[in-house]
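#help-structures
NK: newbie question, is this the right format to request a structure? protein is Reverse transcriptase domain-containing protein
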Amino acid sequence: ADLPRIPKDIEKMLEANITMMELTEALKRQNKGKAPGPDGLPVEFYIKFEEILSIPLLEVMNEVLIKKEIPQTWTEAYITLIPKEGTDQQQIRNYRPISLLNSDYKIFASILAERLKRYLNNFIHPDQNGFLPKRQIRDNIRIILDTLEYYEAHPEKQMALMFLDAQKAFDNVNWRFMLSQLEQMGFGKKFIQAIETIYNKQSAKVMINGELTEAIDI
């Protein structure tokens, strides 16, 4: 089936320079109390010194949009392994990797994500209720409960439920395919290249018992 295409006015909005208001709102949305990335600067640093840092930070972000190059520090991450509760910790698959990213990178990415989220509801099927504004995963739970109650009241009818889970879904995303879909939907070249830029040439060091491994390309 043909993919829906975004209107031209939305395309232009997605590609516009980042504004000071967007940066201010992004700082307000950041989760405080989180471990910092490799540069050691938590998001509280950018909030505390917003008056001093906002202009140079805004300039850096708009340079990324124009030149399609990100600062070297945005390509680096630390990965820490968190054990899954109630599992055999001798098995590596029972650990959840958490990437510690630099705060300025996360602020930039959150601005792009916020721009996109304003319009996602117009393009994503209404059955998808997770991770979208004004949609709640509990709506799907309610549908399941209603279905079970209906068939319990009508035992003469037959039904089946299937639960599917994409194992390591994010890890298995084909980024070339994802970017091509954005292009097919009419997203502008500048926005697509910004998305591509923040995922390109990434590396990480794994933190184990307080020690770091060599950098690994990811």
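mod (FA): yep, format's fine, and the tokens are attached above. The first helix runs from residue 8 to 15.
NK: thank you!
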